[in-house]
Specification:
- With 283 residues, the protein is an alpha+beta fold.
- It has 8 helices and 8 strands.
- The protein has an 8-stranded antiparallel beta barrel, surrounded by 5 helices.
- Strand 7 and strand 8 form a beta hairpin.
- Helix 2 crosses helix 4, helix 3 packs antiparallel against helix 4 and helix 5 packs antiparallel against helix 6.
- It starts with a helix and ends with a strand.
């Protein structure tokens, strides 16, 4: 009983420490002096997030409790899509703590298999290589354009129901396949829905202990319930060659980076270039 209580209050402790840090930062900030000391910015240590590997066997109990809380919140918030601000902040704390307790060395190289999305800190479709490629293609200078496009897509599909969202990573870490199951109502008030699974494949390479690079290859639809079209799509290998289209337009396929700072036998936490995170469980 005592252990569970300490685990469940850990996010609040972390939040309190963050608040204290913000207060101290405010006290000691000197806005009128933008160069308060004589140092070269290039000499400062990099603050880029790195992989932590926790070898303490006693921390397994803590990880299990954090994962239970995270999966429970994922369930009651519909994968994060209807999370309140308080719930979202709590999930951020849980994810941060789990990443600090990561039990796996070289996590990016140890994610093979089938995974199902259980929580996303942004629109769930952005976990697909198709949308990751759009974000990379537009670059940081046009980030707001990408965000606006994603918001428009999200609004246009508000009436749709998202089913399973999966990622399949092959045993050689050469390919990532995204499956996004969705059903969309044709007209409001009519009990008619178009269903299907959008499948996007991408070439994948592990470039650092925590990082993958992805290059989108193609997109196709399977399992459609549209008469005649379903049989055609399922029986054919018709695929939109998204990667080749990028090559034709810009001369190269956009490279997208994903970083995994936590993975174990049943759960994976992966971040995109904008620090949005996606929590997956073994399918």
């Amino acid at each position: 009983g005592i252990e569970v209580s300490s685990f469940s209050t850990a996010p609040m402790l972390a939040t309190g420490a963050a608040a204290q840090h913000r207060q101290m930062t405010h006290i000691f900030s000197m806005p009128d002096d933008p160069y308060p000391s004589d140092y070269d910015a290039d000499d400062l240590e990099s603050t880029e997030k790195t992989v932590s590997v926790d070898m303490d066997e006693n921390d397994a109990i803590i990880r299990d409790e954090l994962k239970r809380e995270l999966i429970l919140l994922s369930s009651v918030t519909n994968r994060g899509s209807c999370a309140t601000t308080e719930e979202s902040n709590l999930v951020v704390d849980l994810v941060t703590q789990l990443e600090a307790l990561n039990p796996t060395a070289d996590p990016a190289a140890n994610c093979q298999g089938d995974w199902e999305l259980c929580y996303s800190s942004t629109q769930s479709f952005r976990s697909s290589p198709f949308f990751l490629a759009i974000r990379s293609f537009l670059g940081d200078d046009n980030k707001q354009i990408a965000e606006s496009a994603f918001d428009i897509h999200d609004a246009a599909t508000t009436a749709s129901r998202v089913g399973k969202v999966r990622q399949i990573i092959d045993k050689n870490n050469n390919e990532l396949v995204s499956e996004y199951e969705v059903s969309v109502g044709l007209l409001p008030g009519l009990p008619v829905q178009v269903k299907g699974t959008v499948i996007t494949s991408a070439e994948m390479s592990v470039i650092r202990p925590e990082s993958w690079e992805l290059e989108v290859k193609g997109t196709k639809v399977k399992g459609s319930n549209v008469p005649f079209l379903d049989a055609f799509l399922d029986d054919s290998d018709l695929e939109v060659p998204v990667g080749e289209a990028y090559k034709a337009v810009s001369g190269a396929v956009p490279v997208s980076t994903l970083k995994t700072f936590y993975v174990d036998e049943g759960l994976r936490i992966t971040r995109d270039v904008d620090e949005n995170f996606y929590v997956f469980t073994r399918a």
